[in-house]
Design brief:
By secondary structure, the protein is mainly α. The protein has 6 helices and 3 strands.
């Protein structure tokens, strides 16, 4: 049988009712959320924050709300679980900062990252944070947890392989061995 005949037979078979190739449905929002949380190799519950998924918001992917002890993820249709996980990890970086960091630790962080120590740690309320030391801390935590693929910090370059060991010292090693799910 030549290629043309084989192709014609395949087309005819697929045109028969019930014989068409099945297409897999895209994952549901719940499946994407569960997959994203499963990618977080960190016991995030230790800090008493809830992670909630809300409709997409223009200009924001996620937000930490300390007064509610809540991380809000504004999931957009089509966001891959890996991107949602990075958003979650970034916000967990903010939680760690709020819970453990002192002004001395923050100064050491800025020194380690080559950020001017006169730079305010936080930006304005509800402003994007990728150009602040607090955002750099959160982005770097997400990078340490999930890898560099989605790093978007702007105040300092993505940490080099050489910097990773220095920066990881800001986070207890046992945090990275506990699986969240």
């Amino acid at each position: 049988m030549n290629r043309a005949t084989a192709l014609l037979m395949l087309i005819m078979a697929l045109s028969q009712p019930g014989m068409a190739a099945r297409q897999t449905a895209p994952p549901s929002d719940t499946e994407r959320r569960e997959a994203a949380l499963a990618l977080i190799p960190f016991d995030w519950q230790r800090f008493g924050y809830d992670i909630v998924f809300l409709p997409a918001q223009h200009g924001y992917r996620a937000m930490t709300v300390p007064s509610k002890h809540q991380i809000e993820i504004y999931a957009r249709p089509g966001d891959a679980p890996e991107l949602l996980a990075f958003d979650i990890a970034h916000e967990l970086g903010h939680v760690i900062d709020l819970v453990q960091n002192t002004s001395e630790i923050r100064s050491k962080w800025m020194e380690s990252r080559g950020i001017d120590p006169a730079t305010p740690w936080f930006g304005c309320s509800r402003c994007p944070d990728l150009n602040t030391p607090a955002g750099d801390f959160a982005e770097t935590f997400a990078l340490l947890l999930l890898g560099p693929k989605n790093f978007a910090g702007r105040i300092a370059p993505r940490p080099s392989k050489e910097q990773v060991s220095t920066l990881s010292a800001f986070f207890p090693k046992e945090w990275f061995s506990a699986q969240a799910n």
